[in-house]
Structure formats: C-alpha cells, structure tokens
Write the structure tokens for this entry.
Amino acid sequence: MMRANAQFISKQRPFTIVCKDVILRDFITADLDAFHSLTWQPEIHEYLPGWNVAKEQRKNWFINYEIPENEQFLNAVSQGSIIGDLRLRLGIVLKNTGEFIGWCCTGIKDELPAPNREIMFAISKDYRGQSYTTQATQGLIKFLFKYTDVEELSAIALLRNTPSNRVIQKSGFSFKSTVDIENEKYYYYKITKSTWESMT
C-alpha cells in the first residue's frame, strides 16, 4: 500500500500501489513476456501504434531503460518528491492471481502544452470493462498528487477510443480541447491537484 514514509519507497521492491482489485507495481524482468504479448494484441496497438516492436527491441527497452528509470523515479521521490522529467511505468496485476494484465504509466508528453505530465494506460482485451484500468489510473493519480511535486496531470485518447475516454473521465479529468498529434486527433484532458483534493 502507499505510505508517506519516503524510506518505504526507496527500500521496498517491487514498489506497489494497492487498489481494490488490482495492484500497480514497478516492472520486474519476469514481466517481459507478458508485457510483450500484450503490446501485440490488436486491441492495444490499434491505439498505441509503435508499441508492438520485435521481442529483442522490447527486451532492450525493458531491461536497459524502463526498469532503470523506474528506479530513478522512485529514488527521486524518496529523496524529496521532485521527479522532473522522469517516467514511472507500472504493471497492472490482478490482486487474486498475480497475472500481469496491463500497465499504467506517467511521463512527459512533449506534444502537449506545459505542464504536460501525462498518465497513460492499456489493458488486455480479456479484462476490459471490469473497472481495472480506472482503479489503476485513480491509484496512480493519488500517488502522484500525495507523494510527489506534481500539481497537474494530462491525459489524451484518440477520438474513436471510447473505452479510454471513459476511463479518463471517470478518473476525474476534465476535457480541455481536441489536439492533433502525428496526424491523429485526440481528446485532451487535465486534472489539477486542487481539483483532485476537492473530489477526495
């Protein structure tokens, strides 16, 4: 579970955020196969083009960039909550089985107006419509607003991606505008820490 104690964040691994039915935790090497398989589900790469890369490319990113940057992010939180441009990538894991079913991440989205720290997510086609992604998104929002220096979060979803737009809206984000990114149109949302605090 989340705790305000910074030492908890720096010493306990894997880092976890416990939600109602799922757990968010930082990636471990054993997640690679499941993560790679999910990126090749048509229902995921339709909305996240470029994620369905070859296994060796995914392994390189996973081992050499994504897991180490998670460590840097969590260390930054433990040392004072200033995370800068660092990214955090968390797996969505079923609480009752431990199955890796998706991910929920945060990082800078350069294509959006500053401040532009984004929350993004994806979940297996087998577990859609069960509120797991909403639980994960709300859990990550809570962690960022309570334990880091983040004051505002963004989210985007393709206009045709009805499930993701619904998750974003259920998580408290407010619609701002439509934006064009790489010749695709997205709905663009924001949530501020003060708005989140008034909701909780």
About this structure: Residues 55-78 form the longest helix (24 residues). Confidence is low (pLDDT under 50) at residues 1-8. Helices lie at 6-11, 32-39, 42-45, 55-78, 132-147, 162-170, 193-199.
